[in-house]
Protein backbone atom coordinates (compact mmCIF):
# COMPACT_ATOMS: atom_id res chain seq x y z
CA UNK A 1 0.00 0.00 0.00
CA UNK A 2 2.80 2.40 0.86
CA UNK A 3 4.56 1.65 -2.43
CA UNK A 4 1.36 2.33 -4.36
CA UNK A 5 0.72 5.53 -2.42
CA UNK A 6 4.20 7.07 -2.65
CA UNK A 7 5.77 5.68 -5.83
CA UNK A 8 2.90 4.93 -8.15
CA UNK A 9 -0.36 6.81 -7.64
CA UNK A 10 -1.43 10.42 -7.76
CA UNK A 11 -1.30 12.79 -5.95
CA UNK A 12 2.07 11.65 -4.54
CA UNK A 13 3.24 11.13 -8.14
CA UNK A 14 2.06 13.99 -10.34
CA UNK A 15 2.12 11.90 -13.51
CA UNK A 16 0.86 8.71 -11.85
CA UNK A 17 -2.54 7.11 -12.34
CA UNK A 18 -5.52 7.55 -10.08
CA UNK A 19 -5.92 4.39 -8.02
CA UNK A 20 -9.19 3.28 -6.41
CA UNK A 21 -8.98 0.52 -3.81
CA UNK A 22 -11.98 -1.36 -2.44
CA UNK A 23 -11.31 -3.58 0.56
CA UNK A 24 -13.01 -5.38 3.44
CA UNK A 25 -9.72 -5.47 5.37
CA UNK A 26 -9.95 -3.60 8.67
CA UNK A 27 -6.14 -3.46 8.91
CA UNK A 28 -6.08 -1.48 5.67
CA UNK A 29 -8.85 0.73 7.00
CA UNK A 30 -6.56 1.80 9.84
CA UNK A 31 -3.78 2.52 7.37
CA UNK A 32 -6.13 4.58 5.20
CA UNK A 33 -7.36 6.53 8.23
CA UNK A 34 -3.81 7.30 9.28
CA UNK A 35 -2.92 8.60 5.81
CA UNK A 36 -6.23 10.30 5.09
CA UNK A 37 -5.41 13.67 3.53
CA UNK A 38 -1.78 12.67 2.97
CA UNK A 39 -2.09 10.96 -0.38
CA UNK A 40 -5.19 8.91 0.39
CA UNK A 41 -8.77 10.04 0.38
CA UNK A 42 -10.56 7.49 2.51
CA UNK A 43 -14.32 6.94 2.29
CA UNK A 44 -15.89 4.21 4.39
CA UNK A 45 -18.84 2.46 2.74
CA UNK A 46 -21.46 0.83 4.90
CA UNK A 47 -24.48 -1.28 4.15
CA UNK A 48 -25.60 -4.83 3.52
CA UNK A 49 -25.56 -6.42 0.09
CA UNK A 50 -28.69 -8.33 -0.91
CA UNK A 51 -26.75 -11.57 -0.77
CA UNK A 52 -25.26 -10.94 2.66
CA UNK A 53 -26.50 -13.30 5.35
CA UNK A 54 -24.67 -13.11 8.65
CA UNK A 55 -25.35 -9.44 9.53
CA UNK A 56 -29.10 -10.05 9.36
CA UNK A 57 -31.10 -10.88 12.46
CA UNK A 58 -31.23 -14.65 13.15
CA UNK A 59 -29.61 -15.14 9.76
CA UNK A 60 -27.64 -18.28 10.52
CA UNK A 61 -30.81 -20.13 11.46
CA UNK A 62 -32.44 -19.00 8.23
CA UNK A 63 -29.44 -20.27 6.29
CA UNK A 64 -29.66 -23.58 8.13
CA UNK A 65 -33.40 -23.84 7.51
CA UNK A 66 -33.01 -22.98 3.82
CA UNK A 67 -30.20 -25.52 3.43
CA UNK A 68 -32.30 -28.25 5.01
CA UNK A 69 -35.27 -27.30 2.84
CA UNK A 70 -33.19 -27.59 -0.35
CA UNK A 71 -31.60 -30.85 0.77
CA UNK A 72 -34.94 -32.41 1.63
CA UNK A 73 -36.15 -31.39 -1.84
CA UNK A 74 -33.05 -32.88 -3.47
CA UNK A 75 -31.84 -29.48 -4.77
CA UNK A 76 -28.12 -30.00 -4.25
CA UNK A 77 -26.98 -27.04 -6.38
CA UNK A 78 -28.90 -24.64 -4.15
CA UNK A 79 -27.99 -26.37 -0.90
CA UNK A 80 -24.21 -26.74 -1.27
CA UNK A 81 -23.17 -23.05 -1.16
CA UNK A 82 -25.49 -22.41 1.77
CA UNK A 83 -24.02 -25.36 3.61
CA UNK A 84 -20.54 -23.91 3.06
CA UNK A 85 -21.74 -20.60 4.48
CA UNK A 86 -23.28 -22.34 7.49
CA UNK A 87 -20.03 -24.24 8.11
CA UNK A 88 -17.98 -21.03 8.03
CA UNK A 89 -20.33 -19.35 10.47
CA UNK A 90 -20.26 -22.19 12.98
CA UNK A 91 -16.46 -22.38 12.89
CA UNK A 92 -16.14 -18.63 13.44
CA UNK A 93 -18.75 -18.87 16.20
CA UNK A 94 -16.63 -21.48 18.01
CA UNK A 95 -13.54 -19.28 17.65
CA UNK A 96 -15.37 -16.28 19.06
CA UNK A 97 -17.26 -18.00 21.86
CA UNK A 98 -14.37 -19.97 23.35
CA UNK A 99 -11.84 -17.22 22.61
CA UNK A 100 -9.51 -19.10 20.32
CA UNK A 101 -6.60 -16.92 19.12
CA UNK A 102 -6.06 -16.64 15.38
CA UNK A 103 -2.99 -15.43 13.44
CA UNK A 104 -2.81 -11.86 12.22
CA UNK A 105 -3.27 -12.95 8.59
CA UNK A 106 -6.26 -15.18 9.42
CA UNK A 107 -8.58 -13.46 6.94
CA UNK A 108 -5.86 -12.44 4.48
CA UNK A 109 -3.93 -15.65 3.77
CA UNK A 110 -4.19 -16.46 0.06
CA UNK A 111 -2.85 -19.98 0.53
CA UNK A 112 -5.76 -21.22 2.64
CA UNK A 113 -9.48 -20.58 2.61
CA UNK A 114 -11.37 -19.52 5.70
CA UNK A 115 -12.57 -23.01 6.61
CA UNK A 116 -9.00 -24.32 6.54
CA UNK A 117 -7.69 -21.39 8.55
CA UNK A 118 -10.46 -21.72 11.13
CA UNK A 119 -9.97 -25.47 11.56
CA UNK A 120 -6.21 -25.03 11.89
CA UNK A 121 -6.60 -22.32 14.54
CA UNK A 122 -9.06 -24.43 16.55
CA UNK A 123 -6.89 -27.56 16.33
CA UNK A 124 -3.76 -25.68 17.37
CA UNK A 125 -5.48 -24.13 20.38
CA UNK A 126 -6.95 -27.47 21.50
CA UNK A 127 -3.50 -29.11 21.28
CA UNK A 128 -1.90 -26.26 23.22
CA UNK A 129 -4.45 -26.43 26.05
CA UNK A 130 -4.17 -30.22 26.19
CA UNK A 131 -0.38 -30.07 26.38
CA UNK A 132 -0.71 -27.56 29.23
CA UNK A 133 -3.11 -29.89 31.05
CA UNK A 134 -5.91 -27.32 31.19
CA UNK A 135 -8.22 -28.45 28.35
CA UNK A 136 -11.81 -28.20 29.56
CA UNK A 137 -13.21 -30.60 26.93
CA UNK A 138 -13.97 -34.10 28.22
CA UNK A 139 -12.62 -37.21 26.49
CA UNK A 140 -15.75 -37.77 24.42
CA UNK A 141 -15.77 -34.17 23.20
CA UNK A 142 -12.09 -34.30 22.33
CA UNK A 143 -12.56 -37.51 20.35
CA UNK A 144 -15.67 -36.11 18.70
CA UNK A 145 -13.73 -33.20 17.24
CA UNK A 146 -11.71 -35.51 15.01
CA UNK A 147 -14.67 -37.69 14.06
CA UNK A 148 -16.98 -34.84 13.10
CA UNK A 149 -14.29 -32.84 11.31
CA UNK A 150 -13.33 -35.92 9.26
CA UNK A 151 -16.96 -36.26 8.20
CA UNK A 152 -17.19 -32.57 7.27
CA UNK A 153 -13.96 -32.45 5.28
CA UNK A 154 -14.20 -35.90 3.70
CA UNK A 155 -17.84 -35.67 2.68
CA UNK A 156 -18.01 -32.00 1.77
CA UNK A 157 -15.04 -29.61 1.95
CA UNK A 158 -12.68 -31.79 -0.09
CA UNK A 159 -15.21 -31.96 -2.95
CA UNK A 160 -16.71 -28.47 -2.71
CA UNK A 161 -13.54 -26.80 -4.00
CA UNK A 162 -13.85 -28.72 -7.28
CA UNK A 163 -17.04 -26.83 -8.09
CA UNK A 164 -18.90 -30.02 -8.87
CA UNK A 165 -22.04 -30.95 -6.98
CA UNK A 166 -22.22 -34.38 -8.62
CA UNK A 167 -20.13 -35.80 -5.76
CA UNK A 168 -22.87 -34.93 -3.27
CA UNK A 169 -26.13 -36.56 -2.35
CA UNK A 170 -28.86 -35.15 -0.16
CA UNK A 171 -28.28 -37.86 2.42
CA UNK A 172 -24.53 -37.22 2.63
CA UNK A 173 -25.00 -33.45 2.99
CA UNK A 174 -27.64 -33.93 5.67
CA UNK A 175 -24.99 -35.96 7.47
CA UNK A 176 -22.57 -33.07 7.05
CA UNK A 177 -25.14 -30.70 8.59
CA UNK A 178 -25.36 -32.96 11.62
CA UNK A 179 -21.58 -33.21 11.82
CA UNK A 180 -21.24 -29.40 11.78
CA UNK A 181 -23.67 -29.03 14.66
CA UNK A 182 -22.09 -31.95 16.56
CA UNK A 183 -18.63 -30.41 16.07
CA UNK A 184 -19.78 -27.10 17.56
CA UNK A 185 -21.44 -28.94 20.48
CA UNK A 186 -18.06 -30.43 21.41
CA UNK A 187 -17.28 -26.95 22.75
CA UNK A 188 -20.44 -26.76 24.86
CA UNK A 189 -21.63 -27.91 28.26
CA UNK A 190 -25.01 -28.29 29.93
CA UNK A 191 -25.87 -25.30 32.08
CA UNK A 192 -27.19 -26.07 34.60
CA UNK A 193 -26.24 -29.79 34.50
CA UNK A 194 -29.18 -32.02 33.58
CA UNK A 195 -31.23 -29.14 32.15
CA UNK A 196 -30.68 -30.03 28.51
CA UNK A 197 -29.70 -26.41 27.82
CA UNK A 198 -26.26 -26.00 26.31
CA UNK A 199 -23.89 -23.07 26.13
CA UNK A 200 -20.33 -22.64 24.93
CA UNK A 201 -17.48 -23.01 27.38
CA UNK A 202 -16.06 -19.63 28.40
CA UNK A 203 -12.72 -20.72 26.95
CA UNK A 204 -10.84 -23.92 26.21
CA UNK A 205 -9.51 -23.79 29.76
CA UNK A 206 -12.56 -22.56 31.63
CA UNK A 207 -16.02 -24.03 31.96
Describe this structure in words.
With 207 residues, the protein is mostly helical. About 4% of the residues have low confidence. Helix 3 runs antiparallel to helix 4, helix 4 packs parallel to helix 5 and helix 6 runs antiparallel to helix 7. A hairpin with a 7-residue loop joins strand 1 and strand 2. It contains 7 helices and 2 strands; from the N terminus they run αααααααββ. Strands 1-2 form a two-stranded antiparallel ribbon. The radius of gyration is 21 Å and the shape is globular. Helices cover 52% and strands 3% of the residues.
Element order: H for helix, E for strand: HHHHHHHEE
| Average pLDDT taken over every residue | 85
**Distance between termini?**
43 Å
Major sheet: order of its strands? 1-2
**Alpha-beta content class:** mainly alpha
Which parts are unreliable, with pLDDT below 50 for 5 consecutive residues or more? Answer: 48-56
C-alpha geometry: globular
- The Cα radius of gyration reads 21 Å
Q: How much strand content do the residues show?
A: under 5%
Question: Biggest sheet, open or closed, and with what strands and sense?
Answer: 2 strands, antiparallel
Contiguous helical run count: 7
Amino acid sequence: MELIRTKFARPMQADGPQVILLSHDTLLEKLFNRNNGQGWRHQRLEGTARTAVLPQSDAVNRVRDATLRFLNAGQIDDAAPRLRQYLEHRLLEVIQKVRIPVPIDFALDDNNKQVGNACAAIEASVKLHKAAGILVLDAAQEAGLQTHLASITGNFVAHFATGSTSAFSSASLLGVMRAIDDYAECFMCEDPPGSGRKRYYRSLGRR
